[in-house]
Amino acid sequence: MQLALDDNLGNVLAEGVGAIFAYAAVGLVLFILGFYIVDWTTPGRLISIIRTDKSPNATFLASAATIGIGLIVAVSIYYAHGDLLEGLIRVSVFGGVGVVAQGLAVVIFDRIIGVDVRGCVKAPKLEPAVILLGVANVSIGLVTAMAVSG
């Protein structure tokens, strides 16, 4: 049995690695924007609340937002069908829409539904309202991701 490598393997690998870094860069920007949306809705600096106060509520909200954005990024890449430029545009646009939708959800839950997001974040135990909001963030990510499929 003889093993032979495709002559184009080097090009395929180089293009693939380049695409991974490009998508990772755009995804990272979206994750950071999502984090700052959650930060905007919480009292004080979110990273301090997570690190210093060890708040399970702040950690859960930030994690849920990140999962929601991750869903959008992954599905956007999938539906680009290997076209890097189209994929980057899809990730940027739909990811941005997802971040905005998550921010609006927090405002709606806070002001209209009555979930005291700022009050819940500093609670020492995981609050049911925070779980609800976290699931809403993941759901928004999933719905936005499915909208990508057209």
Topology:
Layout: H1 9-41, H2 46-51, H3 56-78, H4 84-113, H5 117-121, H6 128-148
Structure write-up:
- The chain is mainly alpha-helical.
- The chain has one domain.
- Helix content is 79%, strand content 0%.
* Unreliable spans: none
- Average pLDDT figure: 86
Given the structure, what is the number of helices?
6
**What is the number of E strands?**
0
Distance between the termini: 46 Å
Structural class: mainly alpha
**Please, what is the oligomeric state?**
single chain
Order of helices and strands: HHHHHH
Structural domain tally: 1
Major sheet characteristics: none
What proportion of the residues is helical, as a percent range? over 70%
Strand content bin = under 5%
Radius of gyration: 19 Å
- Overall morphology: elongated
Q: In brief, what are we looking at here?
A:
The chain has 150 residues and is mainly alpha-helical. Helices cover 79% and strands 0% of the residues. Helix 3 runs parallel beside helix 6 and helix 4 packs antiparallel against helix 6.
